[in-house]
Write a structure and sequence with these properties.
By secondary structure, the chain is an alpha+beta fold. It is built from 16 helices and 19 strands. Strands 3, 4, 5, 6, 11, 12, 13, 14 and 15 form a 9-stranded mixed sheet that branches. Strands 1, 2, 7, 8, 9, 10, 16 and 17 form an 8-stranded mixed sheet that branches. The chain has a two-stranded antiparallel sheet with strand order 18-19. Helix 1 packs parallel to helix 4, helix 1 packs parallel to helix 10 and helix 10 crosses helix 11. The longest helix has 21 residues. The radius of gyration is 23 Å and the shape is globular. The N and C termini lie far apart (about 50 Å).
Length: about 425
């Protein structure tokens, strides 16, 4: 048998890769965690909430030890239409019992990698993977370092949506524009007291706001606002195909349509009071997979497993984004597959076993149950006609000037007739919405 440098080489020190390295090191495996950045988290961006139960199962003390921002107790969905917005809010102090937090990945990822190193993982920063090959009884990760080839029993690719591991091994093709979304965000320093006042929060309570409907009729374009301890994170996300035609429409004066849209979004009358800030701390952008269950790419070969964004494990549910916990779970499943293969002395089963376990996990079950959601969220009426109907109906209910314009249901009917939606559209969209959610 060929001698190996490590039992497993993990490529990418995000949450998925680090979870795998942590689990393997804790089980006394020799594991290398290869990262192209100088420090963990330098190239990682999130605009979401960490649903942390999976991490709590792995590192029970993480709520006390990790550099977390705020404990999320409030979620808001906001539909924009012109100068108006319609909100659906959910605030529940019982959410304090769940380990769900906003976080800044730069700080969090450094903490997580340090914990993996404490368990025994070898962190290899500033190293770029050039190729990955498989021989009869081992795999090799080829890096840009002198004498930097790393022989191992198995490779876990946690290197993001444009995965080098996936493309080098032929598991995946280069992602196409319809399969990807761009997310940009900026972090504004406003101070803890100001955040608590603006969002009606106390102590370390946090809020997550999701917006759609700007510009009117542009599908897949959404925005988010998250509260950190001292900062506010505000960002935008949109499918690349939609961004291309929005650029043709003139939304590209700041380099890309999404940057321009974000700058216009933060100046909306309904948004500005939340995000006006003292100083800009960060401005970041990242590509994300935007796939349905049916369009997920292949995720494995003999001794190779792709996890996290590299496996396309991100789901936009419309009211929240899931991906951080999906990545951690997939990393843990890859680690558990390696442990089982080592126990049986059969590393050839590594990739296949991981994929079977992932298929049966809550991650792919969740994506399968919501498999119609990505297509549903591409419906232009969700971003124009329906927010318009809701706005016009509520204006009729609350405007003194419309008291004499008929019963409320007649006002709603009139708003519907004035919209671009027809009855068949409403029936079809209602059915699609029910089966998507």
């Amino acid at each position: 048998m060929t001698a190996v440098d490590f039992d497993v080489v993990v490529v990418g020190a995000g949450r998925a890769g680090t979870a795998a390295a942590y689990k393997l090191a804790a089980e006394d495996f020799d594991v290398a965690l290869v990262e192209r950045a100088k420090q963990p988290g330098m190239k990682n961006v999130t605009g979401g909430v960490l649903y942390g139960q999976i991490l709590a199962d792995l590192v029970p003390e993480f709520p006390e030890e990790a550099p977390l921002e705020r404990h999320v107790v409030e979620h808001n969905i906001k539909l924009l239409h012109g100068d108006a917005e319609v909100s659906i809010g959910y605030r529940d102090m019982d959410l304090l019992e769940e380990p769900n937090y906003t976080l800044m990945l730069g700080k969090f990822d450094r903490w997580f990698v340090d914990r993996a190193v404490d368990e025994g993982a070898v962190f290899v920063p500033e190293t770029t993977v050039r190729d990955v090959t498989q021989a009869r009884d081992h795999a090799v990760v080829h890096t840009d370092r002198e004498n930097g080839d790393l022989a191992c029993h198995a490779v876990i690719g946690a290197d993001g949506v444009n995965t080098t591991v996936g493309r080098a091994t032929g598991i995946q093709r280069t992602m196409r524009n319809p399969d990807m979304a761009l997310s940009v965000k900026k972090v504004i320093d406003v101070g803890r007291d100001t955040i608590n006042e603006r969002f009606n929060l106390d102590s370390d309570e946090g809020a997550a706001y999701i917006y759609t409907g700007f510009p009117e009729g542009a599908p897949t374009i959404g925005y988010f606002i998250y509260t950190y301890d001292e900062y506010i994170s505000v960002g935008a996300v949109g499918g690349l195909e939609v961004l291309r035609w929005l650029g043709d429409e003139g939304y590209a004066e700041s380099g890309t349509p999404l940057y321009s849209l974000l700058e216009e979004f933060v100046e909306l009358d309904t948004v500005r009071p939340y995000v006006q800030g003292e100083s800009l701390q960060e401005y970041q952008g990242i590509l994300l997979p935007e796939l349905s269950y049916e369009s997920l790419p292949d995720r494995y070969d003999r001794r190779i497993a792709l996890v996290g964004d590299a496996a396309g494990l991100v789901l936009n549910k419309g009211y929240t984004f899931r991906g951080l916990d999906y990545g951690i779970k997939s990393g843990l499943l890859a680690a558990e597959s390696a442990i089982a293969c080592d126990r049986e002395g059969n590393w050839e089963a590594f990739g296949r076993r991981y994929d079977q376990w992932l298929e049966n996990s809550y991650v792919l079950q969740d994506m399968k149950q919501h498999r119609h959601l990505p297509e549903f969220l591409k419906n232009e009426r969700m971003y124009g006609a329906y927010p318009g109907i809701a706005t016009e109906t509520l204006r009729g209910m609350y405007s003194a000037g419309s008291d004499a314009q008929g019963l409320t249901w007649k006002q709603a009917y009139r708003a519907f007739r004035n919209s671009d939606a027809g009855f068949l559209d409403l029936l079809k969209d209602g059915y699609r919405g029910l089966r998507s959610l």
